[in-house]
Specification:
This protein has 495 residues and is mainly alpha-helical. Helix content is 45%, strand content 4%.
């Protein structure tokens, strides 16, 4: 009978009297620790001093068959087997024992759910106890649980181990003679590594009994034998793979047979492969999220799905930007992917040729150049206005004459008729005092201009007259803005 087909042997010595007076007690039928006792403060076991002694207890539980997971829940693994021992081996090498689920997934190759199942089995068998339980708080990093490696009290009873002390801090002082042979076998198992079994590649299907033994057999350690198939040939004259036939020389000469030389790689000379359909979508999505400010932070897969039609039509990021320029862009964007989906709707059908897209790009670049020149013109005009030598007239009468002249020119440009206005001399300043309603209107206008950085209305009056009409506060603010506007260290912008 093969070792894989043999049933699991309970590694429990038969009770027999000992020569030195030690005896092995009778064990219970099952081994299970309830959830309330899976903490270090409530556990009945003792703390393992090192990973080696703890692995002895793990192999004993795996071989004894006392722990049956399916008796306490209807899902998960059916037995405490080699996979649970593999997880325990990773825990035995951690000091302190604070494993993360992702770490165990990488080390064992198991799924996250499987790792959680086997950790629960180790706790249920009394081999692990919580010191600190991990937390998962939304918006914060997950904290891993910290465990204490425990030796169940059933293990001490089965091997006749004598301990001193109380609680989980008990320590081993001796062992009964009946359990020494079993302890030696467990020591050999703890010194070896249990690895994932490899599926045997054979032309014949394994028997039903062999498959059952491989699934439910006892834990087997890696032996010292060679695990790989030798590179040398077999001693048999007939190969199991069958004979190899070579084509005749006539077919080789005529080119009917395939050439034994390897095919050239289809990769480009630069080492980059040609992108497929999905790759082009993701490439366009990454470029859009980099170049468009209102797409910053959006999910690249979502943008790739939104722009799939234009990407499949061969559009580049420049083509998309030119199209978005003519469609118009919103000033405030709440959901970038949704806005992009609305703007790109039907774009591949309108600009369906490369020539149309090139024309759109030229118009877009022309609009950008026109906007750039307009900004330059505005900056120059503002600079000449605030840093030039021209000063508005200080006389209110002269200012009215200038405004009347400008008004006459505007009327002539719009086809209106010029109406003669009486010129006001300088000697009539006494009759030009504004009325109360005019003063109220002037003050309101002056406040609005001061909010925009304009001081022309207040500075057009004489200082004494300006103080009498607008008040000292508005005149003082106008002088401050005027000084800042003519300073080279200050720049005033208008909204």
């Amino acid at each position: 009978m093969s070792s894989t087909a043999a049933p699991a042997v309970a590694l429990i010595p038969a009770p027999r009297p000992s020569v030195d007076g030690d005896a092995v007690s009778v064990l219970p039928a099952t081994l299970y620790v309830p959830e309330a006792s899976q903490w270090l403060t409530t556990s009945t076991g003792r703390i393992a001093l090192d990973g080696y002694s703890w692995m002895q207890a793990v192999h004993w539980v795996a071989g004894s068959g006392l722990y049956e997971p399916r008796r306490y829940r209807s899902h998960g693994p059916r037995s405490f087997g080699p996979t649970t021992v593999r997880v325990a081996q990773e825990l035995a090498e951690l000091f302190p024992c604070r494993p993360g689920i992702e770490y165990l997934v990488r080390c064992t190759g198991l799924s996250e759910r499987s790792v959680e199942y086997h950790l629960g089995m180790l706790r249920g068998a009394g081999l692990l106890a919580y010191i600190v339980r991990g937390t998962r708080v939304r918006g914060a990093a997950a904290q891993a649980s910290e465990f204490a490696r425990m030796v169940p009290v059933e293990f001490d009873v089965a091997l006749g181990i004598r301990t001193v002390g109380e609680g989980t801090g008990r320590r081993m002082t001796g062992i009964a003679k009946a359990g020494r042979e079993l302890m030696a076998a467990l020591s050999k198992k703890a010194a070896r590594k249990v690895r994932k079994r490899r599926a045997k590649s054979s032309s014949k299907a394994p028997s039903k009994g062999a498959r059952k033994g491989a699934d439910q057999g006892a834990v087997t350690a890696v032996s010292n034998e060679v695990r790989c198939t030798p590179m040398g040939g077999s001693s048999r004259s007939v190969s199991s793979a069958g004979t190899t036939s070579f084509p005749p020389e006539s077919k080789l000469a005529s080119g009917q047979s395939k050439s034994p030389t390897p095919k050239k790689s289809k990769a480009k000379a630069g080492g980059h492969r040609k992108l497929n359909l999905v790759g082009r979508r993701f490439q366009l999505a990454r470029e859009l999220t980099r170049e468009l400010d209102w797409l910053r932070g959006c999910s690249v897969p979502r943008i790739a799905w939104v722009a799939r039609n234009v990407a499949d039509a061969g559009w580049t990021v420049t083509d998309v930007r030119a199209w978005l320029h003519f469609r118009g862009e919103a000033a405030h964007v709440r959901r970038g992917s949704g806005l992009l989906s609305a703007l790109l709707a039907g774009a591949e059908n309108i600009l369906d040729t490369r020539a149309k897209r090139a024309d759109a790009i030229e118009q877009w670049r022309g609009a950008l150049e026109a906007a750039r020149r307009d900004r330059i013109r505005q900056v120059r005009a503002r600079t000449e206005r605030y840093e030039g030598d021209w000063q508005p007239p200080t006389s209110r009468a002269v200012l009215r004459e200038v405004e009347a002249a400008f008004d006459q020119v505007r009327q002539l440009e719009h086809g209106g008729r010029h109406q003669d206005r009486d010129h006001i001399g300088d000697g009539q300043d006494a009759d030009l005092e504004p009325r109360d309603e005019e003063i109220t209107a002037l003050i309101a206008t002056a406040k609005g201009e001061l909010m925009q950085g304009e001081t022309t209305l207040i500075t057009s009056f004489e200082p004494d007259t300006a103080v009498r009409i607008f008040g000292e506060e508005l005149v003082r603010r106008a002088r401050q803005i005027n000084r800042l506007a003519h300073s080279s260290l200050t720049t005033i912008r208008y909204r």
